[in-house]
């Protein structure tokens, strides 16, 4: 639960966007920075040039409404929810939507993610994110 006593949910999904220009990713992050704070949404976004992975957390009703919008967004397709769980505490409390960069070299990726991913992530969720990020 958060400070207001509402139940918090966390969603992790992947999607496909093979021809999306990089500028569109910046536009998505700008929209997220504009909208998410007022809705109490926090999270992180990875883009590997072909696929997105996004972690969203917030009050269940808010996250569910945003997931519907995101699923209908024509900039990507094949939205597939990997994990959805109730959480007691936010794992990304300071991030309206943090872009997590994926290093060029595969060897550097794990190290970079270990540093950049939030400490409070459930180990199982962390593993799903790292596995996504080390894929080519
Ligand atoms: C991969 C991806 C992630 C997105 N993440 C968010 C988000 O965290 N917050 C958000 O408001 N919109 C996000 N969007 C954009 C929404 O689909 C939608 O375009 C936007 O919420 C509309 O905002 P507006 O009504 O202010 O234009 C995302 C879109 C994509 C493709």
From TrEMBL:
Signal sequence range? none
Tell me which species this is from. Erythrobacter dokdonensis DSW-74
SMART domains in the cross-refs: BLUF
This chain's protein is named: Activator of photopigment and puc expression
InterPro entries recorded: Acylphosphatase-like_dom_sf, BLUF_domain
Record domain BLUF: where: 8-98
Q: Which Pfam families match?
A: BLUF
Q: Drop me one GO molecular function for this one.
A: FAD binding
Q: What is the top-level taxon of the source organism?
A: Bacteria
